Amino acid sequence: MKRPGATLVLLRIVLVLHAVLVILQPVMAGYYLSGEADAMNWHSPIGSSLWMMSFIQLLVALLYWWPGGGRLWPALATIALFFAEMVQMILGHSQTLSVHVPLGTAILISVLLFTAWSFRASAGRGRPARQVRREEIVR
What we know:
Layout: H1 6-33, H2 40-65, H3 73-93, H4 97-118, H5 121-124, H6 134-138
Helix pairs in contact: 1-2, 1-4, 2-3, 3-4
């Protein structure tokens, strides 16, 4: 069984960077709501670039899976996150806050859980070896 090594380290780096950017979003929104109009000069460009961070994360998650030997689900989860962040950006620009705020909360929790998972021992375990069926041995 192959274990992800360098690809897991790379995935952790990307996830931590992603988490930092996502954490900055509600902080900047809070400053804006507190009367700091300049905070939107940070909130908007960070929000508009998060989908790019998700795309980079997807590429790294695919490397983690293959050839890294990790599991596939991080890449699939990142695809969902990519689309959620695209929708989030559109909702933010259209000021649809009734969906923008709860979706942002869901994104924040997802990225934090994803990042925490990457530092668990289970992230370093390789994907289970494929079991060979009896019919394949006979051939």
